Amino acid sequence: MEAALTLDSIDCSYGEVQVLHGLSLELRRGEVHCLLGRNGAGKTTALKAIMGLVPVRAGRIMKRELRISRLEAYEVPKTGIGYVPQGRRLFTDLTVAENLEIGLMTRGKGRDTLERVLGLFPVLRERLRQRSGTLSGGEQQMLAMARALCLEPDVLLLDEPTEGLMPSMIARIREVVAALRERGVSTLLVEQRVEAVLPVADRVSFIENGRNRQTVEVEHLRSDPQMVHRYVGVG
Amino acid sequence: MAFGPYFLLATLEGLVTAAVLALTALGLSLVFGVMRVVNVAHGEFYMLGAVLAWWLASLVSGHPAIGFLLALIVSPLLVAAVAFLAERLVLSRLKYEPEATIVATIGLLYIIQQLALTFYGPEARPVRAPFDMRIALPWFGYSAYKLSVIGMAVLLMLATWILLTRTKIGLLMRATQSDRETALAFGIPVGRVYAGVFALGAGLAAVAAVLIVPTQQAHYLMGLDPLLLSFIVVIIGGLGSLRGTLVAALLIGLSDGIISMFFSPTLAKMLATLLVALVLVFRPQGLFGTAMR
């Protein structure tokens, strides 16, 4: 299957501290690919490296034929990569509508896109004039996803989208991710809660000390639950 | 003069001070709010605005309004261009590190000040007001130009508010102010936004100086007082808060005008500084600011 995104032996550091050590990864077109690993393994850094938010010291990141690791950070989302950061990172002083407008402006999308996105998250339609910082945790997560989908991305990066959410919200996020896969969107998903993502994931990569230790099909993981225990410490 | 008219005169003077101060402080507040840069050179952009206003006005002959209008339009643009260059050549290369940018803007302060001394000289020079008219009140006559300064400052602040809240550029500025990293992740060219905000902040200081220079005089050391008062205003109002800047500028401007007239300008500055100390102790984020994330 064709790769939507390829990380090829990338090194990343925060100052003197190297976090990613030759990390390689392939996100296939239309798949949901989950990154699992302990805290500090480098999962979030991998997503930030893709977005150009931490510099890539060595290796390269390709989106199909385009070497995005050479782009300025603000140019990366214009290539069609939507990002839902850890902790949502909404523009909290801006209204819901303004947050969505920022997403739409990224790739020059318009009213049709907004209507499609609001169709996925109808609760936001009633909150358009509300300051996003005043939304509930679940609504904020919906908005963070909606904002990223306003780019009409073909690659979506989700960093712990179920963090701190109640089960009904987690189920809704799973439904949206599954619906996006049907539309051909490739999703790279970072999670700590294995049970939250396995129902929707196609493949899983285990990240340890900034390296990709193993990538497996989800079916393989179901037949070998010890694998999760080995890399994540639960299971 | 009886107390009532005397108080009215002091209030009018205070309002003029407040109007000019609000514009100057708004520039400083915008720069800090969006970029998190403490611009110590802000007062020098004000001074540069006044000095350039004198130079531009002296280029044209005829009615003083022509020279003044030329200065009002061109001087803030020139100052904004200087600020834009300073941001691109210096601040962006320092990655906006707080300590480094403070030192850099101190350097900028001295460079601008010494260049002004070299090319403009140590003299204080007047710029003629665009019109010379006095409004006859029952107790005293008052300069119509000074009243027009208040009106123009209100219009400019309204324009800035519209820019920030009703335009695409303003939305990008507010998003960048809210979360720089996420702004990048949504395609906002943060570096360009910063350069624009720095230029806008300097331009606001310059336009304030052009407005006030017909009632004062352009001098190469005139940037220090506005810098101090602007810091006082933005600390009291809350860094980055437009509403806070306006309220604090009114408070400081009016108290400065009234206390200076009834007692002494020194006492006015002392009380303003004391108020800053109280705000820093009891409400460090300012009256209308939000705690920094």
What do you see in this structure?
The complex is a heterodimer of chains A (235) and B (293). Chain A has 235 residues and is of the alpha/beta class. Chain A has two domains: 3-80 and 153-232, P-loop containing nucleotide triphosphate hydrolases (Rossmann fold, 3-Layer(aba) Sandwich); 91-152, no CATH class. Chain A contains nine helices and ten strands. Chain A has a six-stranded mixed β-sheet, with helices on both faces. Chain A has a four-stranded antiparallel β-sheet with strand order 2-1-4-5, covered by helices on one side. Chain A is globular, with a radius of gyration of 17 Å. Chain A starts with a strand and ends with a helix. The model of chain A has no long low-confidence stretch (mean pLDDT 92). By secondary structure, chain B is an all-alpha fold. Chain B has a domain at 23-218. Helices cover 74% and strands 2% of the residues of chain B. Chain B has a two-stranded antiparallel ribbon with strand order 1-2. In chain B, helix 1 (3-35) packs antiparallel against helix 8, helix 1 packs antiparallel against helix 10 (242-262) and helix 3 packs antiparallel against helix 8 (190-212). Chain B starts with a helix and ends in an 11-residue tail after the last helix. The interface between A and B is medium-sized, with 27 and 19 residues.
